Amino acid sequence: MSQGITSQPITPVRAELDIAGRRLSYLDFGGTGRPLVALHGHMSEGASFADLAAALAPEWRVIAPDQRGHGESDRASDYSREGYIADVVALLDHLGLDRAVVLGHSLGAINTYQLAARHPERVSAFVNAEGAASLGLDGSNPLAFVLALPYEAPTREALIEGLGQMAPFFGDILKENPDGTWRLPFHPQDIVDSEELVHGDHWNDWLAGDCPALLVRGTEGVVPAEQARAMAERRPNTRLAELATDHFVYAKDPEGFAKVVREFLQSLDFSE
Q: Measured between alpha carbons, how far is 31 from 7 in angstroms, rounded to an integer?
């Protein structure tokens, strides 16, 4: 088994499913390995897991949706906890997967452990990368800054210019509309609404199950050290791994992230 990120990138196949008239797009990185469903965070998309998919191949087949309102997926009428979780269940049904290992980052991490809590029969194990059990109880919204960003522009160049200092963060993932105009891969208001709805005390969900779990914390991330330790200690079958980086653990330390995820996956028992 490879111990590092492979030098041969994987070319994923993009596919989609219809959920009551709303398109949910996803990338299937392919292969014959065990399926691992990967859920990105706010303002990101399934393609952000390309390095991880390459590092875990061929033992694991990574399937990464663009969650509602992100990337190539349609905007939704709501961004509730229930809505996000229902999308993942619909994806598992579409793929014909009774159970799967699920991995998530940030928003996707909270979606992941809430899926495991509310649909334990569908999740055999999960990885929580920087998903707190209690988040944003002070009422602030750290993503409110996106409301100042333009959503669309006639050309890619005009949109990049309008993004100003945010252009380096989003310039590579802008989307072209069918009419030739360009847009962000998310609507700013959707992101603010979604962030508001992900805040709260989720300890009951975190502690609801006992399937194997890995909590990956960035030492400069959003999950306080004390909370991370409590999450690992209070939930059965849970291990904690810490990486010396920020909230974006999979992007800032791809080698370290792939290593701890791979070691966790190798420890799983699928004999049943």
A: 16
